[in-house]
Amino acid sequence: MPSFRALPPSLLGGTRSRPSAPVDARRIHVPVARAMVDCAVYVEGDRLTGKFTHAAALERVRELEAGGQKAFVWIGLHEPDEHQMQAVAEVFGLHPLAVEDAVHAHQRPKVERYDDTLFLVLKTVTYVAHESVELAREIVETGEIMVFVGADFVVTVRHGDHTGLAGLRKHLEEEHQHLALGPYAVMHAIADHVVDTYRDVSELMECDIDAIESETFSPLTKTDIEPIYLLKREVVELRRAVSPLTVALGRFNPDFKDLMSKEVLRYMRDVLDHAAQAADRIESYDEMLSSLVQAALAKVGMQQNVDMRKISAWVAIAAVPTMIAGIYGMNFEHMPELSWTWGYPAVLTLMATVCGFLYFNFRRNNWL
Length: 368
Description:
- By secondary structure, this protein is an alpha+beta fold.
- It has 2 domains: 30-301, CorA soluble domain-like (Beta Polymerase, domain 2, 2-Layer Sandwich), CATH 3.30.460; 302-364, Methane Monooxygenase Hydroxylase, Chain G, domain 1 (Up-down Bundle).
- Helix content is 55%, strand content 14%.
- The chain has 12 helices and 7 strands.
- Strands 2-1-3-7-6-5-4 form a 7-stranded mixed sheet, sandwiched between helices.
- α4 runs antiparallel to α5, α8 runs antiparallel to α9 (226-249) and α11 (262-327) packs antiparallel against α12 (343-364).
- The radius of gyration is 37 Å and the shape is rod-shaped.
- Mediates influx of magnesium ions. Alternates between open and closed states. Activated by low cytoplasmic Mg(2+) levels. Inactive when cytoplasmic Mg(2+) levels are high.
- It comes from Mycolicibacterium rhodesiae (Mycobacterium rhodesiae).
- It holds the Pfam family CorA.
- It catalyses: Mg(2+)(in) = Mg(2+)(out).
């Protein structure tokens, strides 16, 4: 039977398929709605019913303002990518430098002014529950909240799983009078919420520090210095979140009084006082842990000295029988007491007597 070969695609009138080019994930633009947690329009402190996109919400606010009503939009984003943040920035007119900081995060607490828009960076902290400091790997977890505030909008960008603002938004919606103060009142509420968590976390860390302090100065326990170093590291991380914020909040009264009302400025000064109190407490924790490190090192040194004294005492006791056994192990023919019947028991008695004498003296001098 004759064999047949497959004809090439060119003779069959077809085209040869080509492998598809790899897709660059960075070119895939995810809609802003994927990163949007909530978007609401507020009029005189009341939330309008219905769902809005970020563009439609701002357009609705401008319509209400044209009618003589005070309104603003509050949009919340969670870890947006560059394209999503750029889409929001184009609608609200956000500065590119602030947009870049909001996307990449890892910023120090600060406040920047771009014309009539404020950009506030807050470090969030949360306490990681654990059974004991010795078993913990992390005590404080940090995140970030960036707040863009304009005359009629608030844009919050959150980084981290513990930085949710849903509870705060719900609480503000129940108190219409605070939202009626405008978008800068929302900025104050967020800053006050974050600073309150500083106080809560510092109080919880104080319990850990007290436990380590009592263990360090306990005479019957051996000191492990690793938990102290862990607490020291976590306190330093907490201090980096709190201390720069006091400097940023101090700028509100002289630098931004033309943007917000006197009432909101009073609220911001109250937040500054709370932040300063938290910073002072954390600074005291840092100094306390530094003292604990020194005390722990001194205690470890004393423990090592005690161990070395015990080792030296036992070596001295063991040296006596070792020396006598070494002398009689030289295998010389003429040595004292080799031919004596009671020579072996006498040597053993001598060893036991000298070792017992040394043990009694070392014990009396607290070497053993």
